[in-house]
Amino acid sequence: MRRAAVLLLIAIALVLLLANVLAPYPYATQFRDAPNAPASRHFLLGADSLGRDRFSRLLFGGRMSLLLAPAAALLSTTLALLFGLAAGLLGRRIERLVAAAADLCLSLPWIFVLLAARSLLPLNASATESVLVTFGLLGTLGWAGPCRIVMASVKRHQRSDFVLAARAAGCREWRIAAVQLLPNLMPLAMAQFLVTTPAFLLAEANLGLLGLGIPEPAPSWGGMLRELENLPAAIAHPWIFAPAVLLVVVTGCCHLLVSADKQTV
Amino acid sequence: MPRADRAPLLSALAWRLAGAASVLLLSGLLAATLVRMAPGFGMDERLLDARRSAGSLRAIESETSGQRQIARYYWHYVQNLLRGDLGNSTSLGRPVKDLLAERLPVSLESGAAGLGLAWMAALAAVAALELYGRRSTEAAASLVAGTLLCTPAALLALFCAYLGAAPGIAIAAILSPRIFRYLRDLARQACRAPHVLAAHGMGLDPLRILAFQVVAPVLPELLGLAGVSVSMAVGATIPVEALCDSPGVGQLLWQAALARDLPVLVNVTLLIAALTIAANLAADTARAAREDQEAFQTAAEACA
Question: What is the model's pTM?
């Protein structure tokens, strides 16, 4: 299952990375004589209400989501590692401070914080700014959960023989962190990265459906899901479900990777 | 329990309460700061009205100037909060207290219904799989739960709205796969324990084994999950109420976020943070008490 999930993810990533070559039209090009066109040879997944090719938007939107969600996950995992190591190594006060900050982040539901923070962007923010801010927010807000796990792991490792031996040999804290702890925390960080990537993809989709995602004309899977608000029309034209299906497949593959890792551990 | 043994427990509880209160106050301050930093904050459309006199414009400016200094605004807000005054919504022009009083029961009802349904569905599925599960049913349950987990919450809410389901059912559809996944992992671990295998070997009733040998040892984890699931329910309420057009606090928050309504945002932030902190605190305390009780029993058995 793990191999199949990896292969499927690689295939999807390759197709999305080749969006410039594979997409028949630029994502913002409007065909004003073909709004809401059904699927055909010209428009593989039909055209949206503004006459834009849905297949091209799916490829470009997917590329954006699949590049930026892992980037945001990398940011949150790195922050979690930094804060977790600092909390474990710099004494009780820092540990309490980091724990309180993590509690603060965890006590507010994600979607609420994202909704509030995303709504504070200027109305005339460019698409690039908006995209970066949305995923930047996801990355900076998502550190708390992984950080708690990293903190617990750092505590466990600090009592281990190899860290005690390093300390007895006169190693400084930063050296213990870099040479002894960090390599041992990497599998955990990898698992957290795999857990947060689909969570960020879904968070972006939720924001998009609520109208607070990446603004037009830039495409994203979340933004494309807004077409599903008219569900009866979508059921009559099932190709509108393509971004939802792709999103479920990609997040499903990520979950399969995580569960395969868990079984191995 | 003797009074001397109760003292550390009470002290730990007092520390937890103090920590929760400070996190609560900080979250309100954070929300107020976020809104204050938003572009366009403090701009009043009435100031653009050329028909107004200079005195009227000064009065409008002084009306909003109190909100410009975030620390001052928040200090006054906390003082008023202690007197029971939550301020007025700038976008809806009504007291926030009235808005919350109207909408909170709607959200509590749908949230409690959703949470209850989700727990019942997840528990029933896990118990059924544990008692009568075959590989095919296990695979089917994993597939359904996995698909629901991989579907955006807002999309599930849309489907439920289309099918005419109540918001509680939408919340249950969002929460049940998450609760199911955690419960399934817990049940799997508990069922592999030597005492459970021994009980099966002795030919005890499977239902009895499930109730007394599987559930009882994982009760602390279940209590922890109960606390987390409240937080998940609060998170699910926002897209569900916004998309199902349910007039609850989630919808109010969504409208306030779009209109940058500072008083509503700060109050709802505090309310949501208070709910999640209280749920987590209750679950943590119950779990700690249960673990202490287990440790006490183990020690007593060892002494005997």
Answer: 0.77
